[in-house]
TrEMBL record:
Organism, scientific name: Torulaspora globosa
UniProt similarity note: Belongs to the PTPA-type PPIase family.
Record-linked PANTHER family: SERINE/THREONINE-PROTEIN PHOSPHATASE 2A REGULATORY SUBUNIT B, SERINE_THREONINE-PROTEIN PHOSPHATASE 2A ACTIVATOR 1
Phylogenetic lineage: Eukaryota, Fungi, Dikarya, Ascomycota, Saccharomycotina
Keyword annotations from UniProtKB, A to Z: Cytoplasm, Isomerase, Nucleus, Rotamase
Subcellular location: Cytoplasm; Nucleus
GO biological process, one term: mitotic spindle organization
Name recorded for this polypeptide: Serine/threonine-protein phosphatase 2A activator
Polar residues bias (residue ranges): 379-390
Pfam entry (one): PTPA
């Protein structure tokens, strides 16, 4: 694999990220950008690094990794300090906005404490990507676009050279494991909606990279303790959930959804029962990610672009890519995260959040635009069908 792209802080200009994707034309331009090349690079890099590795919790030998993990753990403590508001609420608990406000207000300071002073110029861009890694305080949802933003943060620190040459799959798993623990806590505590879910025909209501990395952990490993079909066995899934990201994600489904796994997670069940090796699962999930996340406007429109880390630049020519903007779309833009943009102040309640209802996750999704429940698709999307066939047919 090629060397990690390097971003020299002293020679690089950093800017607050801005929205550049307003329609399908913008998505097409994105496919030629430096940003997508870097995102794909780090997705593949970390997937390769975690191969035949298991999650090991606790401090590692790299100080900045421990510091970053500590930052995520502090955000988890902040959830405990910001309990859900009392009483039932169907579509997200408003206390989540209070959590976001506290988090965003202290974000720059957290980076300043973590990073050496010479890296502080990059904080405006780091703020945006980390700030958008935990769901939307506006829509009270979480999905694959937020997960992508976290990948961007980890890759950004890699480009800045902060992970050091000792950075390995062990540290990658430590970081992502801590992140997913926090996100699952946010989802359950504040009953966050799935962002852009495909319903029962999607891979997962919230995650995709977790499955890519988790399947890579066991790819081409003759000593892998499970085969794909074993994920239908909840006991086995729970046994390895602490050491494998794929099992973690499946375990979360068993936790928050009721009913047969084959019905509430038909895509994952289909993969488990028709794809026989982890290497095929992994390669198919990568292809699916390129199509269903990196090439889909509803997801990628929320990924914004700075000047240093993930620029809106043509990867071949080095020139700025065109921006196709229209008045209607511009009026719907979301304000980027900023410590000067405070979320509404929400009074704190004293009761913990309730578990996510089965109907919310399995029977449909809430549309913020229409304000009503949209039924799940009755058939899988064409691209998902192609990916399933690809998993079955690819060689190990």
């Amino acid at each position: 694999m090629e060397a990690v792209p390097q971003v020299n802080v002293s020679r690089t200009k950093f800017e607050n990220p801005v929205k550049c994707i307003f329609d399908s034309q913008g998505v097409q331009e994105f496919q030629h950008s430096v940003a997508i090349e870097r995102l794909k690079y780090f997705l593949l890099r970390y997937a390769q690094m975690v191969n035949r590795q298991r999650i090991e919790r606790g401090p590692c030998g790299i100080e900045v990794v421990n510091g970053f993990v500590g930052l995520l753990q502090r955000l988890s403590q902040l959830v405990d300090e910001t309990p859900a508001l009392p009483g039932p609420r169907r579509f997200g608990n408003l206390a989540c906005r209070d959590w976001h406000h506290k988090f965003e207000s202290s974000l720059s300071q957290l980076w300043q404490e973590l990073l050496p002073k010479e890296y502080h110029e990059a904080i405006p861009e780091l703020n945006y990507y980390l700030g958008n890694s935990f769901g939307s305080s506006t829509r009270l949802d979480y999905g694959t676009g937020h997960e992508l933003s976290f990948l961007a943060v980890v890759g950004a620190l890699d480009m800045l050279g902060l992970w050091t040459s000792e950075f390995s799959g062990k540290e990658v798993l430590l970081i992502f494991d801590t992140y997913y623990q926090l996100v699952r806590k946010l989802i359950i505590t504040y009953t966050l909606e799935p962002a852009g879910s495909h319903g029962v025909w999607g891979l997962d209501d919230h995650f995709h990279i977790a499955y890519i990395h988790g399947s890579s952990q066991w790819s081409n490993d003759p000593n892998a303790p499970m085969v794909p079909r074993d994920i239908t066995n909840r006991t086995m899934v729970e046994k390895f959930a602490d050491t494998n990201l794929y099992c973690q994600a499946i375990s979360f489904i068993y936790q928050v959804k009721s009913g047969p796994f084959a019905e509430n997670s038909s895509m994952l069940y289909d993969i488990a029962t028709t794809v026989h090796t982890w290497s095929k699962v992994h390669s198919g999930l990568l292809k699916m990610y390129y199509i269903e996340v990196l090439s889909k406007f509803p997801v990628i429109q929320h990924f914004w672009f700075g000047a240093g880390l993930y620029p809106w630049i043509n990867a071949k020519t080095g020139q700025k890519l065109p921006i196709y903007e229209n008045i209607e779309t511009k009026s719907e833009m979301f304000t980027p995260i900023s410590i000067t943009t405070a979320a509404p102040t929400i009074s704190m309640g004293h009761q913990p959040g309730q578990s996510i209802p089965h109907t919310k996750l399995a029977h449909g999704r809430y549309s913020p635009v229409r304000g009503l429940m949209a039924p799940p698709s009755t058939v899988p999307t064409n691209s998902y069908s192609k990916m399933r066939n690809s998993m079955r047919n690819d060689r190990p």
